[in-house]
Write a structure and sequence with these properties.
By secondary structure, the chain is α+β, with helices and mostly antiparallel strands. Helices cover 49% and strands 25% of the residues. Strand 2 (57-65) and strand 3 (68-72) form a beta hairpin. InterPro entries: Lactate/malate_DH_C, Lactate_DH/Glyco_Ohase_4_C.
């Protein structure tokens, strides 16, 4: 019985993870479509080529428009905790 309970809980965890991933994908697709349709100031996070760090690609907030990614936005204000992590 314990093995069945463990297996059921494991499957529920996998399903929950998939739902969150699907939800995030749906939000991003919705933002892309809004931008392509000319809705102004559509912002979403994306993994893009960037000059914010020395890394060639970085997850950043972007502004989406009719041509896709119109602008990669700055990081904005960081908390002390985030500033400390940024140093490392």
């Amino acid at each position: 019985m314990e093995a069945q309970k463990w297996w059921r809980l494991k499957q529920e965890k996998v399903q929950l993870h998939c739902r969150w991933r699907n939800y995030a994908g749906a939000l991003f697709a919705d933002a892309c479509l809004k931008g392509l349709n000319g809705v102004p100031d559509v912002e979403e996070c994306s993994y893009v080529q960037s000059t914010i760090t020395e890394l060639p690609f970085f997850a950043s907030k972007v502004r989406l428009g009719k041509n896709g990614v119109e602008d990669v936005l700055d990081l904005g204000p960081l908390s002390d905790f985030e500033k400390e992590g940024w140093k490392h």
